[in-house]
Amino acid sequence: MTEEASETEGVLSYEDEWWEMNCSIIPPEFNRLMLVGVVGAVIAFISVCFNTFLFVVLCRNPRHRHSHLIYLMFLSVADIFLSASYILLFPVNLYMDYFASEWLAAAWWSYMRIMITISHVFISTSAFLICAAAFERYITISKIACQFARHHRLIIIVACLCIAIVAKGPMYFEVEVVPNANCTGVTSLTAIPSEFSESEPYKTAYKFWFRNLLTVALPFIMCFYLNFAIMHRLRIQHLGAKLFRFATSEHRQNIRAATLMLVAVTCSYLASNLLNVVVYTWELVDKESLLSENIRPLYTLSSDLVSLLTVVASACRLPIYLVCNARIRCEVLDYVDNCVLTHLNIKPYTGLGSKRCRATTVRYCDTGSGYMIYDTKPDEVIPSPVAPNKKGERRVRSVGTGLDRVVLSVAMGSIKASQSSAHLTVPLNNSVMLIQEE
Q: At what angle do helices 69-98 and 41-60 cross, to 10 degrees?
């Protein structure tokens, strides 16, 4: 009788131990809950709002669809998807364990595979888009004759998406959701790797080498090299501009601002992916040590930080554009004034518009005795050279010297002789002004 009782107790203790190991809910640590479930969720939500707003602003201007800003437009779309995927994957997973919610668990297991795939596809797509934009900016400031990058931007964007799908799309089939033995409630389901994903050579050749090298190492190395090359080229051009006294050129300042904006975006990508590269290198050298009892908590924290830093980089893109690019800043402020504040019946701040920088265009006008150069707003029609506006003020102003007018008259005569429209760059008072024929 005593032996039977001891055997029964042994069986019960084994079942309790198995149940506790496989079916019990392990609540997340407080620090991890705050980092991922609160801070990460807030930053991801801000990223979704910022990038949605940025996409709407960029889409309103048709000119951006034919400029380098189209990369930023599709980059904002990729950031929207990866930020939304972060919210649905990481914070919700912690919430379902913390609150022991069967409803959240059922929802999370239903979309887990597709969200993981979408997030990784758009993370890779955003990296490739940043590389493509950096490459085009490099060949632009280097004055390299490569028209394919400028005239086939949509093809490059589609190619970036297709490469990302080839590299990360199969992740959907690499995980299977199966019942977790006799467990019920939140732990009733579990995820296991599919059979073909653990077979060779798929596991080593494709998952480890091809995927990681193509989507982690290669974009990081390319962005690092292009970023360094762009900053080196900017330094050389800045010294040359000082030497030839062209530092005040508005055209050069616009190019420099666009380049610095892309450099800032690339630096944020490099900073956010540095930890990912370190973890990937460690996995490449000694993956088993990461699963040891001492290193595993650090490995888990590093994995959480890798995902969080990616979302932080996405949320920082709009502030970077506002600080570095005057044209995007003006369009954002105009959209806020004309669309957001108007619909809310809020009077725009009057001091804001006066401080806005407006892009100007230098145009020529035939006065009958030669060509004059005028500085106007982009949407402003050039009036008569002597006609005042409604307030009696002369909005347009002549710039340049008498020699500039002679040079411009000769240039315009050459253009009319060839019967073609052109954009000329004429030196005016030690600065370069863009002369546009309309």
A: 150
